[in-house]
Design goal:
The chain has helices at about 1-15, 80-90, 95, 105-110, 120-125, 125-135, 150-165. It is mainly alpha-helical. The chain has a domain at about 80-165: Cytochrome c-like domain (Cytochrome Bc1 Complex, Chain D, domain 2).
Length: about 180
């Protein structure tokens, strides 16, 4: 029995041998090296390279800060709303539903229900809140910064505002206009 135990122990130690692959030489990203002609350890990115991290993220301002934008960064047109509707249907309807009530097909299948856009809290939220949530994600919603362009995120936010106004029109919507 002891012999068998010793054999198992020695064979397990032999399998744990560290080879050269575990201890490779490496260079620090901003260190010096003689490999490249400029003496740097890493290459300078080519012109017009798109970063893969930090896309449209403003870490200096909280999502819920009163200093966030309370309006859209560009004038919203009918074409922008139609584009926002189309992008909403592609990226958001599965969870949020066609009306923004949080009753899409994914929650109907037993997954987490997102909040309705028609709650008082979300109707009072500035457009930048929706943009930031799409950019960074929140709760179980993952970020869409790499899937939806910044302009389209603003257009989706405008479409969400249109859904909210359709469900809860302003009190004075029918007054003062032509019949």
């Amino acid at each position: 029995m002891r012999l068998l135990l010793c054999i198992l122990l020695l064979s397990s130690l032999a399998c744990c041998k560290r080879d050269d692959m575990a201890d490779q030489k490496r260079l620090k990203p901003l260190g010096a090296s003689s490999y490249f002609s400029n003496g740097a350890a890493s290459r300078i990115p080519p012109a017009h390279t798109i970063p893969t991290t930090g896309i449209d993220q403003d870490d200096n301002t909280s999502w819920f800060s009163p200093t966030r934008a309370t309006s859209f960064p560009f004038q919203i047109t009918k074409a922008d709303l139609l584009r926002g509707q189309e992008r909403y249907q592609v990226s958001c309807v599965a969870c949020h539903g066609m009306l923004g009530d949080g009753d899409g097909m994914v929650p109907q299948r037993g997954f987490f229900h997102p909040p309705s856009f028609n709650t008082d809290r979300l109707r009072a939220a500035p457009p930048s809140y929706y943009f930031d949530v799409m950019t960074k994600g929140i709760g179980t919603m993952f970020p869409y910064a790499d899937r939806v362009t910044p302009d389209d995120r603003w257009r989706i936010a405008a479409y969400i505002r249109a859904l909210q106004l359709a469900e809860h029109p302003p009190q004075d919507a029918g007054k003062g206009g032509p019949p």
